Amino acid sequence: MSRLIARQAGSAEPIAINDDVSAGECRPGCGACCIAPSISSAIPGMPDGKPAGVRCIQLDENNLCRLFGDPRRPAACHRFVFDADLCGTHRDDALARITRLESLT
Ligand code: SF4
Ligand code: SF4
Fold first, then answer.
1. If we measure between CA atoms, which residue out of 72, 82, 71 comes closest to residue 1?
2. Nearest by Cα to 38 from 89, 85, 83, 102
3. C-alpha pair distances (Å), 20 with each of 23, 53, 63
4. 35-69, pLDDT tens digit by residue?
5. pTM
6. Domain boundaries, the chain
7. Atom number, ligand 2, closest to the C-alpha of residue 83
8. How many CB atoms within 10 Å of residue 16?
């Protein structure tokens, strides 16, 4: 859901999944923040939003957002940006950390 994901999603070029890089910036093809958190607002194809742990229907096969540049992209997605504490250094790390945060809120 981060801006960096969206920027990558707007690329015409396919981007390989890269889920094991050092902390510091969004990992293209990670997509953990499009799976682990709940989203309460409507998403095209998911009118009631999505529960925590459910893959967003707009997350493509490369784990990139299909809605880059689309005004229907939820505001919550624009607000989620890379955070080293949440994103960790690996996709599984991010899934676990965001899931933990969800359970606390
Ligand atoms: S619309 Fe779905 S795939 Fe796109 S950024 Fe939001 S949660 Fe991720
Ligand atoms: S969880 Fe973090 S690293 Fe993974 S896609 Fe979202 S912002 Fe990027």
1. 82
2. 102
3. 9, 21, 14
4. 999 999 999 999 999 999 999 999 999 999 999 88
5. 0.80
6. 1-15+24-105
7. 2
8. 8
Ligand 2 closest atom vs CA 34: 6
What is the Cα–Cα distance from 46 to 37, expressed in whole angstroms?
Answer: 14
The token pair at 67 is: 């809605």
| d(CA 55, ligand 1 centre) in Å | 9
79 CA → ligand 2 middle, Å: 12
Place of tokens 């790390």: 93
Q: Where are the alpha helices (DSSP H) in the chain?
A: 3-9, 75-79, 84-87, 91-104
User: Taking CA 92 as the corner, what is the angle to CA 26 and CA 55, rounded to the nearest 5 degrees?
Assistant: 80
Are the C-beta atoms of 58 and 45 separated by less than 8 Å? yes
